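Supplementary notes (optional reading)

For those who missed the lab, this is the record we used. Protein: Beta-porphyranase A. Length: 985 residues.
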Amino acid sequence: MSNEGMNRMKKKSVLPILILVAAPVFSAQVLDIAFSSAEGFVDDAPIDGIQGFNAQNPWVAGDVAGIGHATLPGGWSRARNYAGFTLEVGAAVVIETTFRLSTTNGWPNTDVYYVGFAEETVHSGLATPSIGSKIHSNGDGSFWVGSSDAGQQVAVPAAYSNDWIKFTQTITRSAVSNEFIGTVAATNLTAGIDLGTTSASWAQSTADGSWGGAMNPSFRGIHSGSVRMEIDHWTVSTLDAPTLPQTVVVNVDATRTRSIGGINSLDRETWFGVYHEAGYGTRELDGKTIDEWILEEGRMLPSRGTVSYDSYWEPGGYVDYTEDPNRPGYINPIELTNNIGPVSRYVTAKALDPNHKTIFSGSGHGRYPDFMCWDPADTHGINTVSNHAAHGEAVVTAHWRIQDAGGLMPHWYEVMNESSIQNNFGWFWDSDAWDKLAEFHVGVADAMHASSFSNTVKVSGPTDAYPFRDGSSGDFSSWENGNKKFIYLTEDKMDAYGIHTYEQMNGGTAYDDYLERFEIWHLGRLPSFLDLWENEQVNTWGDTKPFVFSEYGLLNNIAGDTNAFYQIRSCNGILLSLLDRPDVVDKMSAFLMSWAPYSWDQKRVFFASDDNGTNIYKTSYFEYLRFWRDLDGDYLFSNADSPHLVQHAFLDGGTNLFVVLQNNYKDAYAIDLRAALPAGASMVSAQMQRLYHANNDVARDPFTPVADLGNVLLGADETAMFKLELSGMPLLPVWDESNHYGDRTLVPMQAGVGEAYAIDLPPGTTHSAGWLNLGLYAFEGFSNGLQQVSVNGTALGNLPDLSYTAGAPRHWAKVSLRIPEGVLQEGSNSVTVVPADGEPLMKITSVRLTSEQASDAVFNADRDLDGMSDAWEIEYGFDPSDFADGALDSDGDGFDNSAEYVCGTDPHDDQDFISTIGLPETGAGFKVSFDSKSNRLYAVEATEDLQSVWIDFTNGIPGTGGPIEIIDADGTTNRFYRIKVQLDH
């Protein structure tokens, strides 16, 4: 690739392995004739006048009570049908002809039949059909269908001369006037053999230039002599002209990095985990354990284990814990200290990766001793803890056991797995279930916080299994009586909130499924739900707590779990919907299991067995590991001009630029990837990998060179990752992002009536721009969505059209709107949201303002090297990545913009310049005065003759932000002065 091509800000790419195909087209049937008696055909009678045929009499019907066929014994006779059709440019007609040839007097070497179409009012006689394919006899019993050149033909060997052959023509109206393009495929139906497809298309023109009128399908015998043709079935349909995929521009700003809530870089330990705990996968394959394979191929490990409190393992089976004889309700401390928890797994895990972040969870399902619990008669037969102090002691002891054994200490402890399920927590049939659940969690939190693990292990809950808290009527009563109550009742005791996020599918694309059912999390529902939760925390406690996603994925894989594509689609979608929220996400662990030796029928695993565990093998789920293996780096700013394309960008070590995309639309997109690089940096190479659906499973194209980044096909539901190798990258400035929340949640909206929110931004920072993130909910989708959104009185642009969601059940959308420079302010900011007319049952569930502010290093940074700092360029509306704007004179005062920056003057005000005044001093000499700017150094030069050299009178004068006076006491009667200014670094 040339240096010129590498240095373009807009890079383009097409993978050689990909072909840019059109979106699906739709067909319309023209005719479907089987030549049967039910259609009016009569044995040995002409087909003329039946089913729209205009045919010469030698064409007769036969076996109409059986398979039915139209027959010509040979000769020159045509048959056309008045079922007409028209073709737009790019549209096609598909003609399927099932026929059989035979002869009573040898095979000629000539064209024997034509099948195709003609323009109805123009082409008759010999010109019917004028467009289509030939059937050519080779003189030896073999024949071909197609056109004149070998590449345009499909051959039928002599051995098949009397077999039933189906040949399919696809004929497209060309953009070239009076031209059609055709291809042919053929199948031997008798032998069940695919005969192939033409390797080249043919082009034909009509005899008289007619090209766009109404056409009639037709067939004809020519030179056929004694070659008999029987047509068993004849179908004709049209295909709409395909539409090319919509182009979506993805912009990546590689001239600065992001710090999101103080987090600069992707932490793989946060984002990439799978199921079971590390240390569980000890079975070996080809010399490596299951866990070692997952670590090697995915740079991740299983991240979640459970502990039970009802029994422990001893050789020979499980043994129930006994009660402490001195403390009723407590587990015998000797048994507890010696046996609690799967300690050996955590020792193995630490050897694999001592820095791995893992989750430890109470297993639930009533796995508590009777003596620690309520009477099961009160809790619907589910053992449910009543002695919270005893439970807390057991939890702390389990952690002590891991620490004493030298194992990998968990980062999080979930009080109970899926505590919102009735068969895990027995009070969930009762109205005060969430009150008791909060009490249950606080008991463990108090015990852990009082232990030596208070600063190392975060207590998490409620690990909600059904967090669809809008409720079946859309009134959010489930939220009010569940999660929100949990926030209030646990106060500040919880260190993190746990959620299990499972999607459910209908068998279509994620886009289509979300319009049919609400359980598609990653298309707006999940980010909006987290914003609601965080917004509520801020308004209640003034702070937020992070989230732990210890399980997420797809609950009902209609295609079956051996089809890994849909599982991985959901896992990728959920992950990518949150990847820019490291400030609120502590850990994610996909529910993709390392293996399942307890149930070999389980296929959502990386290692499976088809013989009850005798042999194990890697499954296609390994493509998930391989896809994510290389991703690393600092967060970059990126955006796409479609809300249905999620994208994230990372810069790894200044060398590799990664861009991850997922197409959440129903059709393919043509991606135009553009990367803005700092001055002096260039792109050395570009590669792409992608995950897609093929052969009822997931498929992955590994990283492959990309030639044109402006035209890359990405199919519906596909995930792609670009890796751009860069050179000459400088140390980039960091821009800080912080999130701030509105003062209300779940505000019901009235059509056309604005609702105002107040959001405070802290003082002492420069809030240059940002994003307004709205959670919008409509019980039956949106007919439009928003009429106006403003921040501090400035209307925001690019309001999305949400009308495509009309009728969608319980629809929750996340809308992000760009806030331009100069709108945000320290202190209180007002946000006003006005819904469009006709939006019933709409709520604004949350309002989050993401502000961007330059870190200290940015104020003097100049990424495009145009002589102006990035912060100054943003302040005055210039592009900090555009080198050319430094040489422009925006106000026409004779000073270019870079000079205005150095002088500290307004580049848009031709009256703002360094003004100087020279006055004679009393006695002799002169007084020179000028207005100064801070952070500048000034020099005064003088000469007595403009043709002479300028001499320094004084220099190094620091600007004060006010006037500066210089006295020249020299007795010279005439003198010229000039002021020079430079930045004081």
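If you only remember one thing from this example: The first helix runs from residue 3 to 6.
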